[in-house]
């Protein structure tokens, strides 16, 4: 049995005729079903040569692609960009900032009273203690970081137990008082730390007081506010208010309010989140600074100063 092969030209012509007949019949059925005007035989066109040269296709694609670029180097597309279901790290949502999760009260304390604040207080207190000890011909025993943290803890304990009006020696030596006081340090060491505790270098304080009334606490206060700003992402609405902190020490900007229970104190302006009682930023009212003119719009300027980091956002 012999198998005769047809020439390639005859096979191509046969396939072309079959394709033309099928395409013509499909076109006639589509035209008859449509509601538009009738199409004459001369208007019927069958595209049998469906191969497009690579040069023409590349030119069309390049024109379609480059026509979407604007003069400002922006690409316009009618399709929105695909968004993933998971939120990326660059997106931020209101609430605690990433990395601000805590498990114990000590962790929460260290978020705001960080190590750089402890180091600043430790250095300034040791300088003040050494200066006072040399003046009396004595040797100052340097404070360690653990000892300073223990001193702060004892002060917090005094506040929790509401023992601010109890004499220090009674807290440490009375057997009926909390034994944590005398177990932490001696009463004399506590009194030394309490007497020489400083937040700045007193040697350079006089020169800095020429431009700022709050130089004795300015550096530590600014470090604390930096921690407050970066630990919380505010919501759409924030509020600004004032707080009157009772204070009876020596200070140039102490406010006297006869209507308050405590007649004197320090006024602080806070910017807080409107839903969560969190202090985002704050300004201590230090009065008119040396060489500064009187502000006509004090309230407006305070609000603008506090909201400076949130403007244009």
TrEMBL record:
Locations of Polar residues compositional bias? 83-93
Q: Where is the composition biased (Acidic residues)?
A: 27-38, 52-63
Q: Where is this region: Disordered?
A: 22-104
PiggyBac transposable element-derived protein domain: residues covered = 104-312
Q: Cite the InterPro entries for this sequence.
A: PGBD (IPR029526)
* Name this polypeptide is given: PiggyBac transposable element-derived protein domain-containing protein
Source organism: Cirrhinus mrigala
């Amino acid at each position: 049995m012999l198998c005769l092969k047809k020439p390639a030209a005859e096979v191509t012509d046969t396939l072309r005729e079959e394709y033309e007949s099928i395409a013509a019949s499909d076109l006639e059925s589509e035209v008859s079903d449509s509601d538009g005007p009738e199409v004459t035989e001369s208007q019927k066109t069958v595209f049998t040569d469906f191969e497009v040269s690579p040069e023409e296709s590349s030119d069309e694609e390049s024109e379609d692609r480059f026509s979407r670029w604007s003069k400002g180097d922006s690409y316009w597309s009618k399709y929105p960009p695909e968004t993933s279901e998971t939120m990326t790290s660059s997106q931020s949502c209101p609430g605690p900032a990433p990395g601000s999760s805590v498990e114990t009260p000590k962790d929460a304390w260290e978020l705001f009273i960080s190590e750089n604040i402890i180091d600043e207080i430790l250095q300034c207190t040791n300088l003040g203690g050494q200066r006072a000890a040399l003046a009396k011909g004595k040797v100052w025993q340097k404070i360690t970081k653990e000892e300073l943290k223990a001193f702060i803890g004892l002060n917090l304990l005094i506040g929790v137990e509401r023992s601010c009006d109890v004499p220090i020696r009674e807290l440490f030596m009375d057997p009926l008082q909390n034994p944590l006081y005398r177990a932490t340090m001696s009463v004399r060491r506590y009194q030394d730390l309490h007497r020489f505790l400083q937040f700045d270098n007193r040697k350079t304080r006089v020169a800095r007081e020429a431009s700022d009334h709050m130089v004795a606490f300015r550096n530590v206060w600014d470090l604390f506010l930096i921690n407050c700003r970066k630990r919380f992402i505010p919501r759409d609405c924030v509020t600004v208010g004032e707080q009157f902190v009772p204070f009876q020490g020596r200070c140039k900007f102490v406010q006297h309010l006869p209507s308050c229970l405590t007649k004197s104190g320090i006024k602080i302006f806070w910017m807080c989140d409107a839903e969560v009682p969190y202090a985002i930023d704050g300004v201590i009212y230090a009065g008119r600074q040396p060489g500064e003119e009187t502000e006509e719009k004090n309230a407006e300027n305070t609000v603008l100063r506090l909201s400076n980091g949130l403007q244009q956002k």
